[in-house]
Model the fold of this input.
Amino acid sequence: MVSITEKFATLATDNAPGQEVRQNAGNISEIMRGDKLSGRLVDFSHGDVDAFMPTPGAFHRFSEAVEAGGRQAYTEYRGSSDIRAELAERLAAFTGASVSADDGVILTPGTQGALFLAVASVVSDGDRVAIVQPDYFANRKLVQFFGGQVMPVAMHYMNSTAEAGLDLSQLRAAFEAGARTFLFSNPNNPTGAVYSTGEIDCIVELAREFDVTIIADQLYSRLRYDGESYTHIRARGLPAEKVLTIMGPSKTESLSGYRLGVAFGSASIVERMEKLQAIVSLRAAGYNQAVFRTWFNEPEGWMDERIRLHQAIRDDLLAVFRSGGLDARAPQAGSYLFPTLPALSVGLPDFVRLLRHQANVIVTPGTEFGPHPDSVRLNFSQDHAATVEAGKRIIEMVGRYRSEEK
Done:
């Protein structure tokens, strides 16, 4: 039996966004090579909501909600019925499958809140859950926290640009071994890879065969580059009760500070999530819920411009890395880059610390997303010029600490 101490030990937060200030510099001066590099601090562990302003009208909606007082503050636990009705219509149009505002939508404190509630609603002691590697760091931690067993499924993301690279034979093997839940992000976090229609349909076919429940994190599904097509798994014929989709206006729309998430689909899972939310946080913050009214309701051309700006940063940062010998797949969507590092003379944890203390650059180690000790993740939703300069400092640091062994 796992002790409570062991249980919480799996929830290390040292490399979570904003937590780096709590890290101990340790022996950093003893392993440092050369002087510190000058340059503005760039925190690639999360997007910069100063570089990219929130959706127009967001604060106005929030202010209106404050004026409404208790009527807005104390909504149903699953969120305001009026707002759920608006979102159900917009999400159905976006994903290509109907959404029930009454029993198929819950508003949550951020997509992280939605993920917590969803996993808690389907995973119990001993349950096996198929999880992609690499994928969002909380997936593995939450499954383990709730007593589940992770069944890893590799994604060979560097092998192709036409698909994400999911190892479908490993997915089948996980289902054959008893996994009855599949949890994945699309676009993938940390690589920005988008699953092809063929891959999604194969996942659906396997889910049907083994009666698997799908939890799909589609947080970045609006921020797609070069006209990238996208296939919503909930619209590919699985029973509605077997799919839960998680989205929210936090990253692409720079509304992270409002902590807004939404889960929609399976009515039975949504009902469980509401019961749990009632004893965890009661509801998504009432006044904040009103900001949902700006989602999928931005001014004409606003989203196109945001995509254009992010794509320009992506392209310039990729050019810097590739000129410096770092390999990375070009993200098809989202704002994450997952470059592969060469062999270094220091371990990844030390290199990440060195980047922060010596180069004023904060990144997330690849080990947060699976067995990837040779990668780091960057959220490039930052000031464009500062991002490029920070990328150059990363290249300089890689050169300084590159392993001398042949």
User: Anything to note?
Assistant: The chain has a mean pLDDT of 95. The longest strand covers residues 128-133. DSSP finds 14 helices and twelve strands in the chain.
